[in-house]
Design a protein that fits this description.
With about 500 residues, the chain is an alpha/beta fold. The chain has helices spanning about 50-60, 75-80, 100-115, 145-165, 175-190, 225-230, 230-240, 255-270, 315-330, 340-345, 370-385, 405-410, 430-440, 450-465, 480-490, and strands spanning about 90-95, 120, 135, 140, 195, 215, 250, 270-275, 280-290, 290-295, 300-310, 355-360, 365, 390-395, 415-420, 445-450, 470-475. The strands form 3 sheets. The protein has an 8-stranded mixed β-sheet with strand order 4-3-2-5-1-6-7-8, with helices on both faces. Helix 4 (about 145-165) packs across helix 5 (about 175-190), helix 11 packs parallel to helix 12 and helix 12 crosses helix 13. The chain is globular. The two termini are about 25 Å apart.
Length: about 500
């Protein structure tokens, strides 16, 4: 679609109808793995979700959405109290930040699990299956355990809802109910330790009912400004609310404003604070096949040439934070980790949807960057991980994100932008987003295709026609869009 018509002005579940007219992806054919077969349900990630899992998912999504959180802990506290406080049955490493928290949480969990501990991991949002959000021993929770735990806690949720309604408050939200479910699943497993990612903010996030021993902060920047504040200091102040008395705080390098808030929180709670750059640091990172070799000066030990199967300097920094977090958890920062065990844990770490190649012929890479800070990291990492003289970007973004800042961060990396819109009600309209993109990069570098499947096919065709042997497609701008593309790839297998 041409952009000549434009006068230049200044995370929900995927909806199938936005994948294409048929709801099945408009017949886009993308090779998947060595076989390239069309994926049956059993071959989908984690085996696909059955009707019972979808029943639970529907019950969760019938509640107030996770993008409209209630600023309260009392509701979640009451629900877990009625359940017998399952969250007190295991220690917790609590992770917050603006970007990188999911990757950091995943690496932290993998390192802890390599030490022989049974782990729980809660992250959000999910890409394909809601069960990705609750991981036990490195695997998304089994469908039967997911459903049985939900059925077990449903009466408690109903009691809590009734009490809240009687007081004139809203019933438990989606994320509050999901948090209660995850905490109960981990107790039922049972796990030895849980790594829990904050949903939004920190102080009033429902995950903050946990009594964590270690709190981890990834880079803090402006995002979710409506809920968290318009300055980095405000956002950092909210996030610092997860710090518990006499605990261990580990942080990525931060802006002075953010660091001041973390230092204040650590001082008030008499906690230790280790910050990247002074308390620990990356000493070297070298690109390698399938990832990079990273050397880290930790809080308690020095670790050389660790293989991290993730791309980008930001992932090397995330790995250093994860190492420092595990040092703080296992030995209060006074005992070095066994390097062989650490190597095993890092090498097994995954972070789906982060600079992840999902198809070849041409190469298609997806990345969950959805704000300027994440897009900047993506722009720096992509040429190192996937060198290309011609990148075609499939971009879509949510209405509440900084669309212009996102495009500016990628404008020197992406040659042609195919503008589309993510699944869900929160998506910024493709035509509206295209006006922003055209304003930043010009008419001649922009195509518009509202259908996600159509946009992906258009981008592949452009990459095929480009005068560059290594032309590739990059999909970025929305986590739910990345998930929808990954699902589309699996469902539409076969060769081009």
């Amino acid at each position: 679609m041409s952009t000549d018509q434009y006068d230049l002005p200044d995370d929900d579940q995927p909806d199938d109808d936005l994948l294409g007219e048929t709801g099945e992806g408009d017949g886009v054919a993308i090779p998947v793995g060595p076989a390239g077969d069309t994926a049956a349900g059993a071959d989908l990630p984690y085996g696909g979700d059955d009707d019972e899992v979808r029943r639970v998912e529907a019950a969760l999504y019938a509640r107030i959405g996770e993008q409209a959180p209630e600023r309260r802990l009392t509701a979640t506290r009451r629900a877990v109290e009625l359940l017998g406080d399952p969250h007190l049955a295991y220690p917790v490493i609590h992770v917050t930040g603006t970007n990188g928290k999911t990757s950091t949480a995943r690496m932290t969990e993998s390192i802890v699990r390599a030490h022989g501990l049974r782990t729980g991991l809660m992250t959000s949002p999910h890409l394909v299956s809601i069960r990705e959000r609750i991981v036990v021993d490195g695997e998304p929770i089994a469908a039967d355990r997911f459903v049985e735990n939900w059925d077990d806690i449903t009466p408690i949720l109903e009691i809590t809802d009734a009490e809240l309604t009687a007081k004139g408050e809203l019933p438990l939200t989606f994320f509050e109910a999901l948090t209660v479910l995850a905490l109960a699943c981990f107790a039922e497993a049972p796990v030895d330790v849980a790594v829990i990612e904050v949903g939004m903010g920190g102080e009033w996030d429902s995950t903050n009912v946990v009594q964590s021993q270690v709190q981890v902060f990834t880079p803090i920047a402006i995002d979710h400004a409506k809920q968290l504040g318009n300055t980095v200091a405000e956002i950092a102040r909210t996030k610092s609310g997860i710090v518990k008395p006499s605990s261990s705080v580990v942080s990525s390098a931060q802006t002075p404003e953010a660091l001041a808030e973390l230092e204040r929180a650590a001082e008030l709670t008499e906690s230790t604070l280790a910050v990247e750059g002074t308390g620990f640091r990356v000493t070297s990172d070298t690109p390698a096949v399938g990832g990079q070799l990273v050397s880290v000066q930790g809080i308690a030990g020095t670790y050389d040439d660790l293989f991290v199967p993730l791309f980008g300097a930001h992932q090397a920094n995330n790995a250093a934070v994860a190492i420092a977090a595990v040092e703080s958890f296992l030995g209060r920062g006074s005992q070095a980790l066994d390097e062989d065990v650490l190597s095993e844990g890092l090498a097994a770490a995954t972070s789906p949807g982060r600079l992840q190649p999902v198809a070849t012929g041409p190469t298609v890479v997806v990345d969950a960057a959805h704000n300027p800070h994440g897009a900047k990291a993506l722009a720096e990492a992509l040429p190192v991980a996937f060198p290309s003289e011609h990148v075609v970007g499939v971009v879509g973004i949510l209405r509440d994100k900084d669309a212009r800042g996102f495009v500016r961060a990628l404008k020197d990396t992406v040659a042609t932008f195919v503008v589309t819109q993510p699944p869900g009600d929160r998506a910024l309209d493709a035509d509206e987003f295209a006006r922003v993109v055209v304003d930043e990069v010009g008419n001649d570098r922009v195509m518009v295709e509202p259908s996600l499947a159509g946009a992906l096919q258009e981008a592949r065709d452009l990459a095929d026609d480009a005068d560059a042997e290594d032309a590739m497609v990059l999909v970025a701008g929305s986590i739910v869009m990345v998930g929808a593309v990954m699902d589309l790839v699996h469902r539409e297998g076969g060769t081009k």
